[in-house]
Amino acid sequence: MRLSVENINRNSPYWVIQLDDMTFRFATKHGVIYRVGFNLDHYFLKEGAYHFFIANASNTFAPKDPDVFKVISLVIEEFFRQQEAVMLYICEASDHREATRAMLYKRWFENYPHERFLTLRTAEMDFDGYVVYSGMIIRNDHPIYERLLKAFDSFTQQAPSRYYVEPK
């Protein structure tokens, strides 16, 4: 799958640069550089699922900036132009703010203008007291919509007994 930076830049408040087929970079008016994109999943599905990521590549304080959400929404919209797209995410835990990130994803999704065409499924996986917040977003017209919902639920319920996760 290759996403189009041209489609993203048509409405983006910041100039977005494409680093590879599914990874982008942009700088905010505050000088914060973000990397945003998707990595192919190797656990949940054999093919077709991607992990979404947002990284503050500057490793600096990022003041509240609603234009960042606009850019991220455009990248996600470009991803979901593909009917069979499956977006997964795991909330980063290195700074112990993963629960806050999970709430932020949910709020972003609820405020996303095309939310009615997509389904968000979330899960909290408990690895011996270490909770991992995750989610899946799919199009409502995905050809295997029901199977994906069941597979996500099954995977997130079984993951704590199948995988070892080191607390950060």
Question: Layout of helices and strands, plus pairs?
Answer:
Layout: H1 5-9, E1 16-20, E2 23-27, E3 33-40, E4 49-56, H2 66-79, E5 86-90, H3 98-111, E6 118-127, E7 130-139, H4 145-162
Parallel strand pairs: 4-5
Antiparallel strand pairs: 1-2, 2-3, 3-4, 5-7, 6-7
Architecture overview:
With 168 residues, the chain is α+β, with helices and mostly antiparallel strands. It has one domain: Aminopeptidase (3-Layer(aba) Sandwich). It is built from four helices and seven strands; from the N terminus they run H-E-E-E-E-H-E-H-E-E-H. It has a seven-stranded mixed sheet, sandwiched between helices. The radius of gyration is 16 Å and the shape is globular. The two termini are 32 Å apart. The model has no long low-confidence stretch (mean pLDDT 90).
Number of strands: 7
So, CATH architecture? 3-Layer(aba) Sandwich
Any idea what the radius of gyration is?
Answer: 16 Å
What share of residues are in beta strands? 25-35%
Domain count, please report it: 1
Let me know the largest β-sheet. Answer: 7 strands, mixed
Low-confidence stretches: none
The strands making up the biggest β-sheet line up spatially as 1-2-3-4-5-7-6
Fill in the CATH topology. Aminopeptidase
| 3D shape | globular
Order of helices and strands: HEEEEHEHEEH
Compute the number of helices: 4
Mean pLDDT: 90
Content-based structural category: alpha+beta
The share of residues in helices is 25-40%
End-to-end Cα distance, whole Å, is 32 Å
Question: What is the CATH C-level name?
Answer: Alpha Beta
